[in-house]
Amino acid sequence: MPIILDGKKLAKKIREELKKEVDEFTSKGLRNPTLAVILVGNDPASEVYVKNKRKACDEVGIKSLYIHLVEDTPEEELLRIINKLNNDEDVDAILVQLPLPKHINTQKVISSISPEKDVDGFHPENVGKLATGMKDVIVPCTPLGIWILLKEYNIDTFKKDVVVVGASNIVGKPMSLLFLRNEEAPVSVCHRNTKDLKHYTQNADILIVAVGKPNLITSDMVKNGVVVVDVGINRLEDGRLVGDVDFENVKEKAFAITPVPGGVGPMTVASLLVNTVSIYRQKFGYPKHPLTEV
Ligand code: NAP
Which residues surround ligand 1 with Cβ inside 6 Å? Predict the structure, then answer.
């Protein structure tokens, strides 16, 4: 049986620890950490994500300031609100839920968030810091969550062949940069135009898949002893939630594997909390949160 990389369990432990930490800060007279969450429109999936993030904030004592804007909110209005939050001393972190409606320029919006408050780590300044190995970086939540999960289970990543499937700005690219930045391990990044995906996946010691296609990775595509991290979230017609990996068959060959649900998803939310508390700590003169050390 492979090791099941239990993100749900670890995320709960992290939330409990963060709650203690926040209680300690507030008992010293500090205000609660504060995260502003902006949602534009009524995308049902985004509404669920935002609800889960805010619930997790509540649990650990992070105040979440919810700004829900109508679908046709002009870009200038959104930029004006972000500017106000950037200048608000009582707001530590800002999250703009993606995707944004088509009429809004996402990159412009992300770039308008103050890099110090950019809790998702998508601002070009944070992306640059991640790429160049700078320490005061905010790492995007999903890659950070995966990193914390691998370390918690003592997965040896040093000099391992890492393959990341999917090259989005949110998951695939920052994930690969995390491995590259310390010259920890060589990384291959595969995407839609990879000619022979199996050629790469078969050689992976650590395989991270973030595409959004059920059963993209089947057992013939992996080698024995592989560590598999399945980021994908796919809702099947019968209502089941599955990842991108054929879990039942791939697990037979894996040394360790994340389940879906209960793997990367809860770690993404836990990392959002960790990043928020980390920004708050630094604002009040404390070192960044140890879990953000990458
Ligand atoms: P995305 O922006 O759609 O990116 C998917 C990536 O996969 C793109 O680089 C895409 O290339 C590539 N791709 C598409 N088809 C491929 C194929 N057949 N072989 C190899 N690569 C292919 O999605 P994302 O935001 O990174 O999310 C990926 C998945 O993870 C989704 O299921 C999403 O719901 C899930 N997710 C989960 C979490 C979590 O916390 N568990 C967090 C974020 C995302 P093109 O750009 O050329 O299409």
Answer: 142, 165-168, 170-172, 190-192, 194, 197, 210-213, 231-234, 264-265, 268
Contact 101, 40 (CB under 8 A): yes
Q: Domains in the chain, start-ordered, CATH in brackets?
A: 27-116 (3.40.50.10860), 141-265 (3.40.50.720)
CA–CA separation, 53 vs 43, rounded Å? 15
Active-site entry in 6, 92, 118, 120: 120
117 is catalytic: no
Distance, CA of 48 to CA of 45 (rounded, Å): 5
Tell the residue nearest (CA) to atom 3 of ligand 1: 211
Q: Which residue has the tokens 């650590």?
A: 206
Per-residue pLDDT of the chain (294 residues; tens, 9 = 90+): 999 999 999 999 999 999 999 999 999 999 999 999 999 999 999 999 999 999 999 999 999 999 999 999 999 999 999 999 999 999 999 999 999 999 999 999 999 999 999 999 999 999 999 999 999 999 999 999 999 999 999 999 999 999 999 999 999 999 999 999 988 899 999 999 999 999 999 999 999 999 999 999 999 999 999 999 999 999 999 999 999 999 999 999 999 999 999 999 999 999 999 999 999 999 999 999 999 999
